[in-house]
Amino acid sequence: MTTSNVNGNWTMVRGAAATAAVLAAMTGAPAMAAADGGEAPGKGLRITRFLGERRLPHMMKFKDTTVGGLSGIDRDPRTGTWYLVSDDRWRYDPARFYTGRLDIDRATGAFEGVKITGVTTLRRPDGSPYPGFGEPGSADPETIRFDPRTRRVLWGSEGDRPDETHKGIPLSPMSLGWARRDGRYAGRLDVPAGLRLTAEHRGPRRNYGFEALTFTPHGIAAMVEGPRYEDGDAPTVRHGALTRLTLWDRGGRARAQYAYPVDRLPAAPKPPAGIADSGVSEILAVGGHRFLALERSWLEGVGYKVKLYEFDVRGATDVLHRESLAEGARFRPVRKRLVADLGRYADPAQNLESLAWGPRLKTGECTLVTGSDDNFDAREVTEFLAFAVRGC
After folding, report:
1. Residue 331 and which of 85, 148, 175, 348 are 20 to 30 A apart at CA?
2. Does residue 19 carry a pLDDT above 70?
3. What is the reported pLDDT for 309?
């Protein structure tokens, strides 16, 4: 076995034990550390200023809907309108997205407020809303992007499937779907066979589907939150995991796929046998080959941990046609580096699941916004953190 670090040296993986050893080395490499408590020096994207935090009230009402569970955000650069998708599965209201404003002063960078201005129900091809949790064909919206070219939105549903803890859940497809601004169905991307949910120990795990989506200069990219069954175990405190980034062209054809190394758990849950959930909750293109990734963990008795990474697909192996990343596979994963530990900007850290570009400032800095999903839980909040960045 030849081990690998995060800079993308060749990897030989033979079986689950070898995979664990490789990922422990990859996710614990000193190269991932950053100076000054989290910001990465040198080339690449770097945070220059924290512009502030703004929140929405818990369980606020807007046009007879309950605002919460905001899992994806994006901005129309022409109008300045923001799009925010809720992962509510008809616990309160049907699958929907909101529009609104995030006011960032382009002269000073001051983050002055957040306001919801509209709500739109997402529709199935027959025009009906998507069914709720536990029903066939239900949707689990987790990410959204606005397409300036077509003036439509592209949104990702994590779908659902049965597993050992949810044996009675019907199979609902994981999807990336187009919608008009009025919520009407406008088509969907073709999901590669290896990323389709099944009722077996094959394909993506339950709650490890599409959470991350972005447009690139020439196409579309999406990442599943965590490893498929064939690609190894979920992260633990001893080892990380491998998940997959897929690239599509504008016609909706999958063109390439790359292995992304998810960190091992940043701490053990309390108690040690407690619940732990960790993976990539959003990505954002920086250019044609560079991306940002939010790695988010929830650890029972500890709370949330969130880090922002930059990664580059150049030099990585295309694994689109590889059945497994855990059995006798020779490949090179993407290279990644830490940009910031986002836990330093809000205490306690929240469930950050969204990431988007805001307006460019008059200083030439870009603005970067991340937002949290409060899970409709009074112990959590819907917050937005804004940053000025360079290297964008």
Report:
1. 175
2. no
3. 98
